[in-house]
Every structure is written in C-alpha cells, then in structure tokens.
Amino acid sequence: MNTIPGRRIIMVVFLIFLLLPIYWLVNMSFKTNTEIVTTMTLWPHQPTLENYKRIFTDESWYSGYINSLTYVLINTAISISVALPAAYAFSRYRFLGDKHLFFWLLSNRMAPAAVFALPFFNLYSAINLFDTPWAVALAHCIFNVPLAVWILEGFVSGVPREIDETAFLDGYSFPRFFIKILVPLIASGIGVAAFFCFMFSWVELLLARTLTSVNAKPISAIMTRTVSASGMDWGLLAAAGVLTIIPGALVIWFVRNYIARGFALGRV
Amino acid sequence: MSVTLERVTRTVDGIPTIRDVSLTLERGTLSVLLGPTLSGKTSIMRLLAGLDKPTTGRVLVDGKDVTGADVRQRSVAMVYQQFINYPSLTVYENIASPLRVQGRPREEIERRVQEAAKLLRLEPFLKRTPLQLSGGQQQRTAIARALVKGADLVLLDEPLANLDYKLREELRAELPRIFEASGAIFVYATTEPSEALLLGGDTVCMWEGEVLQSGNTSKVYRRPDTLRVAQVFSDPPLNIVGIEKKNGSVQYAGGIEAPATGLYKSLADGSYRVGFRAHQLEVANGIAGRHAFHATVTVTEITGSESFVHLNRDASNWVAVLQGVHEYEPGHVLDAVLDPENLFVFDAADRLVAAPNKA
Amino acid sequence: MDKTINQKAWFLVLPVFLVVAFSAILPLMTVVNYSMQDTFGNNQFFWNGVGWFKELLDPSTDLGGRFLASLGRNLLFSAIILAIEVPLGIVVALSMPRQGWTVAACLVILALPLLIPWNVVGTIWQIFGRPDIGLLGYTLNSLGIDYNYVSNEFDAWATVIVMDVWHWTSLVALLCYAGLKSIPDAYYQAAQIDGASRWAVFKAIQLPKMNRVLLIAVLLRFMDSFMIYTEPFVVTGGGPGNSTTFVSIELVKIALGQFDLGKAAALSLVYNLIILIVCWIFYTVMTNAGTERPEKQGAAS
Amino acid sequence: MARIDLVDLAHSYGGNDAPVESFALKPVTMTWRQGGAYALLGPSGCGKTTLLNLISGIVTPSRGKILFDGADITPLSTQKRNIAQVFQFPVIYDTMTVGENLAFPLKNRGVPKAEIDTRVKQIADLLDLTPNLGRKATRLTADAKQKISLGRGLVRSDVAAVLFDEPLTVIDPELKWQLRSKLKALHRELDLTMIYVTHDQTEALTFADTVVVMHDGRVVQSGTPAELFDKPEHTFVGYFIGSPGMNIVPAKVSGHEARIDGHVIGLHRNYGVLPAGANIEIGVRPEFVNVAAPASGLLSATIERIDDLGRVRFARVRIGDAKFAARVPPGFSVPDNDVGLVFDPAHVHVYADSRLVEGVA
Q1: What ipTM was reported for this prediction?
Q2: Domain C62-287 - what CATH class?
Q3: How near does any CA of chain A get to the CA of C180, in Å?
Q4: Where are the domains of chain A?
Q5: How far apart are CA A112 and CA A124, in angstroms?
Q6: Residue pairs between chains A and B whose CB atoms are closer than 8 Å
Q7: Cβ contacts from B onto D, under 8 A
C-alpha cells in the first residue's frame, strides 16, 4: 500500500545507473593500458593485477593511502572527542548564545572549502604544520566537528533526562556517569558519527591537496597527477580509484540502518 | 532526620509553579502529595530532592541549609512515573548501582540486593535487562534500586500511573508492606484519592502550586478545611449544591425545600454550599420526607465492584455510587436522596462549617 | 522536561568552540584583512578599502564579470540538479522494497556513490564519458550522437549534471526513505479503511510526513551544489572555455591560480555571506517546523 | 451494520503448524449480533488486538473464517470489508481541515459534493465538531482528534462495524468519562455494531453490553457485566473483574459443604462428587464475605491490614498461608489480630481446574 506501482523496475534501473560507472572503473582497473586504449571490451580479455601490484609496491602510491588514513583517523578522533561533551551540553542545557553557536556550527558545515583553501594555506604555513597530516586533520574539523555535534546531539536527546538525574541521585560523579552510563547508551550514535566523520574527511580533495605537498600527500592528490611519460596510465588510475572506494564500502554495512540519519545531520 | 521546605517558591519562564510552600517531613513518615495534574506535585519533589533550586525560600535537612547543595551530596532516591532504569545494565546491576558508587564491599552489595529483590519479588529476573521485563517489573526494579540505597528520603512520582489496570492494583496493595520495611521518609505523589487513603500516613492536598491542607490522611479526608480540599480529595468528583438557610428550613438551589434537620440545624441563616461525595448520595425511588431530588441519568460507569451513576439535576452534574453492577439507562429519572447527617457544608468563603461526625 | 539553564555548560562546549574557531574564525580574519587590500605578490599590500566589493557587483569589471557569470551558472546548476534529484529521490524512496534482505542491499548500493572520494567521482565520469575508452562516450558516438564533453558546451553541462544526479540522488532517496519509515502503520490502515487511492495516500499522508526531511534534503543539496568544485573541475576543468566554471572554481583560479589575494578574499567573503543567509533561512524554517505543536485547548487543570 | 460470525477462528504468528498453545489467538467460534456493543477485555498480550486486526483485515487468520451477515469476508482486504477503526493514538490527515478529514472517505468514493456536505454537517453535529469544521485538524486536542477519526467511519452510511483499539489511552483522565458517555450515546443512536478493545475493566463494562474476557489468547468468558461479576466462569475472570478481585482459595468440596483449613462453609447448591484429581478451589468476592468477631462456628483468619477507602473498608486477612480479602461492615471496630468470616453462600462458587462447576440447586 505504501509503495508505488512498477517500483521493482524503477529500483533495478536506478541501481544499474549507479553501478554501471563503478563497474566500468573496476573493469578497467584489471586491464592493461594497451587493451584499454586499443579495444573496447566489456570485461578484461587479458586480466592483469599489474595496476594493483604497482600501487602496493610503489612507495609514492601506497604512501598516499597511508597519509590519507592518518589524517582521516586523527580528524575522526578529534571530532568525536570534542563533539561528545558539546552534544551533551546542547541536548541538556540552555546557555547564553546556545542557539547562535548551534547555527554557527551548521553554517561552518556548509562553508565552501574553496573559501578556506588560501587562508588555511597561509595559516598552517605560518605555524609550520604545512605538509603534515595534522594540517589536513585540523582543516577538516571545520565541517566534521559540526557534523559530529549535530548527529550526537540527536542520539543524546534520545536518552531520557531522568536517567541522568537517577545516576546523579545514585551518587555518580559527572565523568563517571558520562563514561559508564551515557556513552554505552549512545554507542551506536558514536559509531555513526565516527563513520560519517571518517567518510567526509576521506572524500574531500581541495583542502587535502592544498595543505600538503610531498610527504603528507593524500591518495586523492596523487591520483590527479598520474600523467606518466607515455600519456595517461588509465589502468593505474582506475585501480587507485577502486581502492579508495573499498573503505567506505566495507564499513557501510555496519551503519546501514543509520545511513539516512547520518547524512541528514542526525535530524531524521 | 527531617527535611523541611521553608517558604519555598519557584517560577519557570515567569510562570509561578510553586507558591510559598512550607512543609516538614519527619523520619519514618509517609506523606502523600495529592492533587490534579499540573498542581505542582512533581515540582515539590524535585525541590525536595535538590534536582531543582527554589526561586526563593530554603530547603533544610535536620535544620542545616542544603538549598544549593549538589544532588550527589544529598541522601535521596527517586522513582519516576515512566520506570527509569539503566537500559544497558542487568536488573541486578541496576539495583546494585548506588552501592557500587558508594564503594560498598562485594558481599554487602550481594546481601542487600538479594534482600531488595526478595521484597519486590524480582529474584527470577536479576540476570535480565530491564527492557526485557513488563512495565510492572521495570517499576519494581526502579523501586528496589531506590530502597537498596538506604537513602533518608525516598520520593515516588505517580509510580503506578503508567501501569495496566490490574498491575496497578497489585503493586498498590504491596506498597504499604514495602514502605514499612524501610525507615526512611517517603513522599508519594498521586492524582488518585484512593491511593492516598490506602497508603495512610499524612496527606498534603495541593492545588496550582499551593498546599491547601496537610495532616493525617483520614483527618483531611473527613475534615477538609475548604471546598477545594474536598474536591481534590474526592474521586469521582465532589457533588455540590447551593442552599439558603432561613428560619428552620433549607431551600436547595433548583427548587427543593426541606426542614433544616441534621447538620443544618446548628447553621446560622444565610447561603452556603453543600458538598457530598458519591457514596453520600443515595439512589432510591420515592423515600418520602428526606432531602430527595429528581435527577436524570446521563451514563452509568461500571467497574464491576461498583457502579457510578452520572446524574443531571438542575444543570449541574452529580455522581452517585452503588455497590455491584447496576445498569441505569440514560434518560431514566430517579430520586437522589441526601442524608442531612452525612454531608459537608461550606460557608460563602468556601470554609468548612459542618461535617459528618461519624466515621 | 525541557532544558535547564546552566551557564557552566560553556565548559562542555569550549573544546568544540576552540577547534572550530581555530579553523573558521582565524582564517576568516585574514580573509577580511586581505579583502580590503591589493597586492602584486612579494608581500606588499596597498589599501583598497571596499574597492573589490564594488567591483564584484559591477559586471563590467573583470572581477565582477567573472563572479556574476559564475554565480549565474552555479545558481542555474543548483536549480537544475534540485529539480531532478528531489523528485527522483522521492520516487526511488517510494520504490524501496518493504522488508527482507533486499532492503539492506538497496541501502548499501544507494549509499555507495556517497562514499566515493569526490575526485574519484570526477575520474570515473571523466573515463566513462570519453569516446575512446568510456562506455558512455563510445556507445553514444557509435549511435551517431556526437558527444564530447571536452569541446561541446552542452555536452559538458549534461555530463556535469548527470554526474551530480548519479552522485547525490541517493542522499535525497535515503532521507525520504527514513521519513517514510517513521510513518506508523496505523496511517496506512486508516487510509485503506477510508478507501484512499494511491495518489490520495501520497498527497494526504506521505508528502506531509516527508516535508521535514525534504527540507533538510533541499538544504543539503543546495548548499553542496552551490559550493561544488572537485567533480566538475576533474571532468571539465571548468571548460569548455568557462561554461562550467562555477563560483568555487573561479575562486580557486583567482586565489591559488593568480595568487590575487585581495580579489579572492573579497569574493570569498561575498560567497560565504550568501551561504550564511541561505543557511539562516533554512535553520529558522527547520527549527520552527519542529516546534509547531497543536495548541492545548482549555486551561491546564 | 453487520452480524459478525467467527467460525473456528485462530491465528498464530509462527505459522499454522505451530503448537496450538503458542497461538496468539486460540480457536474461537462466536456470533456478535448486528448493532451490538462488544468489548474485548484482557491484560496486554492476551490476543485481543490480534482478534481486532483479524476482523479489520489487517491480519489474515492462519485458520477459520469470519462472516459478515453470513458472507465469508476472510479473503477480503480491509478496504472491501467496509469497517471503520479508531486507533490508540489519533490518526488524522495533518494538512486537512476537520471538514476535509470527514469528507475524505466520501471523496474517495466519488460521492457528489452536495451529498458529502450534508453528510459531513450531520456527523459533525452528532460529534459536536461543528465549530471546528474549518480549522486545521492538527490544532485540536487529542479527544477531538479521536472524534474526527470516528467521524470518518460514521460518514459512510453503510459501514459494517466500528472498531476501537484502546481509543482513550492518550486522553486526559478527567476527559475520559465524557468521551465514554459520548460513545455510549452514539451506540444507542446509530444501531451500529461496535467492537472495543481495552485492558481497563471500567471502560469495557461501561461501554459494552457484552464483554468478551480474554486471557493468554483464549476467550475465557463472554457475557453481560452482571454475569461476569456474579458468576465468573473462570477463576481469571473472577480475578480480573472487580477491584479487589475474587478470593480464590483451595478447598475440599462435597455435597453442600466446602472445607477450608478444617472449617466448613455452607454452599448454596449440592456439588455431589467432583472429578478426582482436579484442582478444586472455591471463589468468593470480597463484597460477599463480611468480617465479624471471632466465634466458634466461623472460619477464623488473622488480620494483616485494613484498607480504608473512605466509602468502603476491606480487611486483608490470611487463612493458613492463603491470602484473603473481606469487607468490614460500616461501624464495625476490628479486633487486633483474629477475626471471623461470614460467607454469603449464594455468592460462593466452586471451580475445578479453574473452570466453574454448576452445582445442583
């Protein structure tokens, strides 16, 4: 009753539309460059793992993944740990300027990275953090911390206030209550917030490329410079692309029930 | 050990929720806060517990001012209306949690938790988590945790309101036994007069943030200071009729006149308001000579043990109660009879002037 | 139980404030500072007051022309993708299976494009659309359609739009699906009892219940499309010419391309201001939508 | 307005071959006459909502049939069964006004506008909703919304039955009795078959002329409030109806006598010899057992508590280890520990394995 006629066809067509370009990338990642350029084949006739082998052996390639993972993990850790107490404050208390602060966080989540590219460049060079994972991790906080606060505030508000009061009446101190009672109750919320911080930091390119040059170069930046002597090495580029999809694809299954809530800033 | 509210008021966003309340609770007593919803019962409890700060006035424990004290230093336990437990802990851990925080030795915790579980008949459920239990068992777990702590002050805020009809009856019958087992000060909030009567102890009648009258439960029930107290302490609602006393006879509003016998005899002439509860109104056919009124039935509510007959007389609604099952068809006209010995009379200022003397 | 007033809560909020302020307020100060000056590199600055802001609003100037043109393109782009993605998202949400493992499978596949790094999305479509090695490019051309997103302006626009639809429609679908799932079964049963047609159920129950999530979807989609940079830059580099040069691409060209700090800073401020205003409108609408409760009739007893 | 027949109806959420004991609704065969008001009463989890959903068609039974006026409607969808339902929380179309809400079912059936308006006005008057017709439905209080929900069913002149699923749950306690008397008045005026699900005995006994008491998925007794009170056919009905519930105490019964803890109680009827091995109990309501001064001929009990409810006093006593409740006659001063119990033989019932045994007069 609550779905529409022909829904199966619409769903299948839409899923194919989504999967086709990804399939083409994966398909290409197993082809040799010559096969790619010479013939148009729907599946690799001479499949090769050369592209992947190249990425896992060439230091300038796999270092990109390590650098990306480094700043993404740092950013997620910072975002969640600062966002947890703030989410509790926004959920439980009214204080001077709380509405404006909550709005300011939202506006920062929406701030265009382009606006901050140059100022960050100057800022992090000034405090010689340029070309370190810390630069990118801190830069990404501008949209990940607000996201984490908004998501966690939704989950904390799901816990009735009376549980806090009962714990305080039982004699719990605030930190002990926070860690032993509240955190276990919003564990799924923390997991969701962590996944989305990880994800939004992982997908961002502009700031990551602007704030790094050599030794903290993320994979996304390395990919845009794959023009080798013999023209564009498409197979290698495709393989690198496929490997950037793996982390998200692996973890998505665990948060599949909260996907909408995460993307909607916890407001669903 | 005593807890006192001294001229306490509280306003939230400009609206006064508690107006100048003074209350003293002694050790080992049970006080029932009786009043309709939004009469300030929960606010009073939160002030007693220290969860909220009064706008003016003081909260004293054994004479010492604890108004600003943090709730953690107070020895208080509270049971909420919506059975609040720690969902991630088992029933055993839920009950043990206050003792664990106090750092009690293991065997003492084990002993006291088993004792509380036995009192609340929770032994078979100790290993489960609260969400796997029925509403009644969840509330028993919350009560067990409140008792095991041995707090000096135990507050229960309408603990039975969310339970199924029969579950409420069972737990209500057990409460007196549970309270006697612990010597703490108990404060129990409810909207139902029958719970106040059942639990005994003292009753504090509340109305829109004020304490109207407080004292021994049956005394307040039998001697309400004002019409409002009588209304708060009556379920189904108190029946009211205006009367005019003039030289030896009583003129009821709506056209009935009868000799001023019984409690009317000693009244000075003038206008009064007569209040009488459902069981003080007898429903019969044609008992001559007594204060009888013709009334039409609007609906009969049957609970099994009792039947409440809703009557309409001279544009005011009355309710009479009969034992057992009696179905009166709406529209049926019958005689509702008042016994001048068995009613309450209030003066023009709604103050009690006459009440039935027998039990 | 509404929130209690407690100024000590600021200690809990301080870490967030400091971290975000460090990344937001500090850089914005430098931007404001630059926006009032002009420089020719080598760190010499000349006071220019509100010169750049005047130019920004004057199409005849180089800065103003480029800004207003890119703004126009960006707003057109946002409008088109909203017009496609919101209705398509609703249709996909309504087509989701009701229960069983297929639900989880659909959710994961729908979410996949949202997890791919933005530059890889660009790379995928860059490859996919090429006539020599891309399935799309190859098929279209073999059907006789002369499709080339590098040289043809219309093809470039079409590719960027289809790429965005491919990348973000799932977000709208997921939000609408969450909105639909929050509708209690009793509403559908009542509609059945009332003999409501499919369309009546959609208009009377589903759409009203989804308006909150649709509001969020439109906010997120407008904001993200209004500040889009990476994907179009990777595929078309803003070309052909500057037909797909959106505001962010223009800004990055001026800031990191020409190192023209003054102009870039002024443009950044105006750009950020627009975002702030739109954000404020949505925020007030969203918080009011949430607080609209049926009025309690009769005095509280 | 339909006569409803349940023919060997049963339902199991675990599939048809699951053991009958696990059925959410054990097999039941009953007839509900046209225009009757029936209440399905029982604790949560007793199968009453399952039965309601079977009648409304939201759940298809794993066994048995349902007939409306003799026609088998089991395979029909909710829409075709032409029933109306009021849910636990108000279900209204937020974007519509009250008038549009009421007109919605008729508009869906393509009824001409003029007829819709008169019908809506008529039902709005009946439910005292006329002043609110033009207002947005979401603006009203919970009880007004429930009336709208009911109104959507009543506008259809040919509705077969009106189903209520605990409709008073979200209503403020003080307003409950008004809505209850409104529903009762409607039932009298409209000659409609009404089925009301609740766990609250007062709502059931007040609303319905026949109450169906359910326990653990089984229909335990179906009868008028008076029958349920005076002659409970199952110990659960005795316990569930009446507050405090019926005393149920093990006893040895033969002929005209029941023996508890060595004492004999006279019975109204002759019970001859009861089936051996059955668990024999006697059941008597506290209202029909009076407390008196201890005397040789009376069964004695020790007092635990006196519950003084103002208009009536009950004594909580103990006979051996069985708990017992008895009425304290007005004005009787209760001795401190032991007390005698005076039984009204006409209201003492005998139960074998929880089912009522009919003695010989």
Answers
A1: 0.84
A2: mainly alpha
A3: 9
A4: 1-48, 56-263
A5: 18
A6: 46
A7: 101
Decide if C27 and A264 are in contact by the 8 Å CB cutoff.
no
Mean pLDDT (chain A) is 88
For residue B231, give both structure tokens.
């209304």
What lies within 8 Å, CB to CB, of B230 at 6+ separation is B224, B238, B275, B344, B346, B352
Instruction: Please state whether beta strands D83-86 and D161-165 pair in parallel, antiparallel, or not at all (unpaired).
Output: parallel
Residue C68: how many CA atoms within 13 Å on its side-chain side? 13
Domain boundary residue, one of D239, D261, D281: D239
Q: Tell me: the pLDDT tens digits for C115-163?
A: 899 989 999 999 899 888 889 999 999 998 889 998 999 999 999 999 9
Beta strands in D49-131 (DSSP E): 63-68, 71-72, 83-86
Cβ atoms of D188 and D194 closer than 8 Å: no
Which residues lie below 8 Å from residue B280, measured CB to CB, with a gap of 6+? B239, B338, B339, B342, B343, B356
List of residues 6+ apart from D324 with CB closer than 8 A: D247, D249, D289, D301, D316, D317, D318, D341
Contacts of B98 in chain A (CB under 8 A): 170-171
Residue type, B76: V
Q: What token pair was written down for B92?
A: 């055993």
pLDDT at residue number A225: 67
For residue B72, what is the nearest residue in chain A, using CA coordinates? A171
Q: Is the peptide bond prior to B236 cis by the omega test (within 30 degrees of 0)? A: yes
Distance CA(B187)–CA(B155), nearest Å, equals 5
Report CB contact under 8 Å: B72, A172: yes
Residue A206 has pLDDT above 90, yes or no: no
- Record: fold of B239-354: OB fold (Dihydrolipoamide Acetyltransferase, E2P) (2.40.50)
Same domain, residue pair D155 and D223 = yes
- Show the domain range for D341: 247-356
Distance from CA of D303 to the nearest CA of C (A): 40
Q: Are D3 and D70 in contact (CB under 8 A)?
A: yes
Q: What tokens were used for A165?
A: 């009061």
Quick count: other Cβ atoms within 10 Å of Cβ A188? 15
CATH architecture group of domain A56-263: Orthogonal Bundle (1.10)
Chains that touch B (3 or more CB pairs under 8 A): A, C, D
Partner residue opposite D244 with nearest CB, options B167, B169, B358? B169
Q: What is the pTM of this model?
A: 0.86
CA separation (Å) from C131 to A29, B204, C138, C143? 18, 86, 4, 11
Q: Which residues pair with residue B333 across a beta bridge?
A: B296
Peptide bond into D329 cis (omega under 30): no
Whether D133 has a pLDDT exceeding 50, the answer reads yes
Residue C4 pLDDT > 60, yes or no?
A: yes
Q: Which of B208, B198, A186, C198 is nearest to D312 (CA)?
A: B198
Tell me if residue B70 falls in helix, strand or coil. Answer: coil
pLDDT digits (tens, 9 = 90+) for A99-150: 999 999 989 988 888 888 888 988 898 888 899 999 999 999 999 999 999 9
Interface partners of A (3+ CB pairs, < 8 Å)?
A: B, C
Gap between the Cα atoms of C159 and A234, Å rounded: 20
Ranges in chain B, pLDDT < 70: 285-290, 358-359
Least confident of A21-30, D304-313, D349-358: D304-313
Structure tokens at A155: 């989950």
- Asked whether B189 and B40 are in contact (CB, 8 A), the reply is no
Name the 3-class secondary structure at D281.
Answer: strand
CB-CB: which of A5, A113, A248 is closest to C229?
Answer: A113
Residues D220 and D304 in one domain: no
Distance of residue B12 Cα from the nearest chain C Cα, in angstroms: 10
B2-232: which CATH topology? Rossmann fold (3.40.50)
Q: Assess contact for C115 and A248: CB atoms under 8 A.
A: yes
Contacts of D296 (CB under 8 A, 6+ apart): none
- Please state the domain extents for chain B: 2-232, 239-354
Q: Residue D84 pairs with which residues in a beta bridge?
A: D162
